Every structure is written in C-alpha cells, then in structure tokens.
Amino acid sequence: MDKIIQNTIKFVKEKLEGAEAGHDWFHIERVWKLSRKIAETEPCNLEIVELSALLHDIADPKFHDGDETLALKISREFLEMQNVSEETIQQVLFIIQNISFKNRVKAPKNQPIELKIVQDADRLDAIGAIGIGRTFNFGGFKNNLMYHPDIHPKLNMTKEEYKKSDGTTINHFHEKLLLLKDLMNTQEGKKIAEERHQFMLTFLDQFLKEWNVE
To answer: What's this model's pTM, rounded to 2 decimal places?
Structure first.
C-alpha cells in the first residue's frame, strides 16, 4: 500500500477516536473500500479517490457547530506535511467541500469523476442495513423521537432547514435516505444502491406494521 495512504489511515484513526459511531473510523473505512470498488469500474485518479474518501469526514460540520471550513483546514495541513502536490491537495479539498447531500444544490456542474465516486460511496454507506443502523444511532445521539405519526417529513428543505432539522428518525428516511438511490453518479453505485434501497423499503414497511400493531 502507498505510504501516504498508510499515513492517512493512521492520521484519520487517531483523529476520529471516540467519534459518534455513525461517523467514526469504521464509516471512513467502509467509504474508502466502496470508493476503491467503484473506482475499479471508472477511469480515475485512484490516489485522489482514496485520499478524499479517507479525509471526507475528518471534521464533520454536524459535530463542529456547523463549521464547514475546519475539515478543509485540517486536511490541507495534513497533506502539506505529507508533501502532497498542491494540485492534488486542491482536488481533494474540492471533493471534501462538495460531497455533502446538503450542498448538492450549489455543487458545481461537470464534477470530476473522483468526486462522483467518493460521493456514491459515502451515500451508499447511508442506505441499506448499515444506513438504518447509522440513522438510528445518530437519532439516539441527538435524542430524537424514533417516530411520531403526527410529525410529517419535510421534503425539499433548504440547506439551512436541513442543518437545523430535528425531526424523527423515520422521517429522515423520507427526507434523505430514500432519495439517494436516484442521486447516484456511477453505474456501479446505482447497482449497489438498488438492493440497499429495497432493503430500506422492506424495513420501513415492517416498522410501521409493528408500530401500528397490525
């Protein structure tokens, strides 16, 4: 394995020690592995894909008072210490800055394939069985209700509304997770998303049957 990738893995593991379980090293590791899997099917710069996947959640704004600049600052400082070229640094920072679901409306058009790959990998980890587990873990972390029949999903939220939203965990499926399948960029991402999407639909159906004691 490339020395810089090894160093990045070590750095991220240390930085995210004790992080909320849905945004910890294991989330990063899954996104990294998914990115490499998707990258096998697309012509791309693998180093940029791997570095971006490993650093994409180094300082998630959700856990840093909404600060979207901190991850860029930390990533730049680390990559400069590793003597990574300025061109590569800029490409990695561009991906970190534009990967987020909440930033999708303002994201530039004609995105590089490396961003599309890492974005698909990150979104895939938000759906399926892992996605369900992460969603309920984060809902518990925020002490949100699991479900309330009188609280309806808020669709088409602005970025600011999305950041401030404290709706139910089940509503989050409708506000974000069920939308991700149709936002996949790559053929491989679309293929993997299909099965995970169906699993979530089955889960939601079963959840409501049990909730309503059918």
So the answer is: 0.91
